[in-house]
Amino acid sequence: MTNSQHTGHSRIVFALDVADVHAARHLVTLLAGHVGMFKIGLELFIKAGPAVIETVRELSGAKIFLDLKLHDIPTTVRRSMRQIAELGVDYATAHCSGGAEMLAAAVAAGGPAVSVLGVTVLTSVTPDSATDLNALVLERAALAQTAGCAGVICSAWEVAAIKRQCGKSFVSITPGIRPPGYRAGNDEDQGRVMTPARAVAQGADYLVVGRPIRDAADPAAMADAIAADIVATAGAMSPPG
After folding, report:
1. Going by fewer Cβ within 10 Å, which terminus of the chain is more open, N or C?
2. What band does 15 get if pLDDT is binned at 50, 70 and 90?
3. CB atoms inside a 10 Å sphere around CB 210
4. How many whole angstroms separate alpha carbon 208 and alpha carbon 34?
């Protein structure tokens, strides 16, 4: 694997949005070396518990992103993030709507062990006449940065504005990534979507991809195709460490 290919793969975050550890093991085994990070969400974590983190680590050696979107009073979030920090994950999330004090509590509890990311606005949410979605995302990104978060979760549509406001080192992880020609099924619930190449061109650091890889006839080949698309846009740019 060349350096540029490695860069493309390391930007891909595969969403392990499956119901049990057996399905997770199968996908991690298939995709080890083809993606740079695995995202463990609420459904899998509730079903399998912290042990699934060690399973992913043993099977892949990839980075691990625990996406629980903590949102509670600061004391509860502080205690919860303290437990997360002991699990050895690379990234964890807290929802920006919880406020500055809650985010700061998460960051303090995460310490040097885990990088905390603020969730701005879910990518299932679409603009309406009553909401300036871009302004809300930017407001929450600023809140996350002030609280000490390493970056944010946002749609690729807001990345460029966030980078201008918060700086290039402020990490952006973008769900809602759909390869060219991807046909969404009846379970599609993402509203603000973008292709991998365009998301990287906007400045996205990491791209969360779930269904397009998971449902492909050859998931590893689909991941490789997305990585190649990234490389064609980003060249030898390196994602954050």
Report:
1. C
2. very high
3. 19
4. 13
Angle of CA points 138, 150, 156, to nearest 5°: 45
69 is annotated as an active-site residue: yes
pTM of the model: 0.89
**DSSP character string of 138-167:** HHHHHHHHHHT-SEEE--GGGHHHHHHHH-
Cβ neighbours for 42, distance < 8 A, ≥ 6 positions apart? 67, 68, 69
From 47, 69, 163, 168, active-site residue: 69
* Confidence at 127, pLDDT banded by 50, 70, 90: low
The rounded distance, in Å, linking the Cα atoms of 50 and 45 is 7
Strands (E), 82-228: 91-95, 115-119, 151-153, 171-174, 206-209
50 burial (CB, 10 Å; 0-12 / 13-18 / 19+) is: middle
pLDDT tens by residue, 177-220: 988 776 665 455 555 678 899 999 999 999 999 999 999 999 99
DSSP strand pairing (171-174 vs 206-209): parallel
Per-residue confidence at 2, pLDDT binned at 50, 70, 90? very low
How far apart, in whole angstroms, are the C-alpha atoms of residue 23 and residue 39? 14
